[in-house]
Amino acid sequence: MNKDLTGKIYDIQGFSVQDGPGIRTTVFLKGCPLRCPWCHSPESQEFFTELNWLQIRCLGLETCGHCLNVCPRAAIGRGPVTENALGEEIIYPEVDKGKCDNCGACAAACKANALYLCGEDKTVAEVMHRLLRDKPFFDESDGGVTVSGGECLCQPEFTLELLKSCRAHGIYTAVDTTGFVKWEIIESILPYTDLFLYDLKCMDSSLHKQVIGVLNELILENVKKIAAAGGRLWIRIPVIPLFNDSEEHFRRYAAFLSEIKSSVDMVQLLPYHTMGLSKYERLLRKEKIFVAEPPTDDLMEARRKLIASYGLPVRIH
Prior knowledge:
Helix content is about 30%, strand content about 25%. With about 325 residues, the protein is α/β, with parallel strands linked by helices. The protein has a nine-stranded mixed β-sheet with strand order 7-1-2-8-9-10-11-12-13.
């Protein structure tokens, strides 16, 4: 095993009880080939380290202003006079994303940690050192480690080595994936993956392409191959208003999943929410973000019952 291999990590989250059975620690890798408009982790999308700004921490340019003087590309300027959370007038820094190259000079100078970098290169050994702290919790709860993203299989060598190392330490492993990768990559991790958390966002390929940016044939083919190879699956379906929440669409989900029913341990329905909107602001993104009313409890229960009527184990996340 190559424990010096590095991966770009944007978070390691302990006591993660939703990413597989038991108490788990989830390792989040940066980079994803999909662009879901409702993504609640936009910091996971790009494959490079990114500058973030958290307004609530910022002291303002009149009080601090160190970031203005250190940027080598003159990407930071003075924003307009505005109000902070206390109603006081304040001038915040304004970052020109067209000039910023995410070098981190401003983050290093920011005493309040309002400017910070998201995405850090870590070796397998460094990540395992963190994970092994939680092994008593894994052993007590039948939990383990989940490798997630972004799309963790877009960093295939690192993910494989991390899974191998977990297996060598007797840790139950799960991989959270979109399935939009070459089959050979999934095949390589199969011997070291106890459970796949597999996203199915849409059954209509043309709609999938229109909204998410890629066709879904590869995704559907790969999940069938995992099932045929004996892999265990938790299928995750985000329930998105105006996209995939109709009864007709869920009948297509149920019919497809019935074909691989013996490999599906759980279907998780994930209701759309808006908790990730503030993260787009931290990333200083200006693009239009999908916003809608979350699905009602009645709709979620109706879709749960529909999936269950096909003999599939299902719960609302």
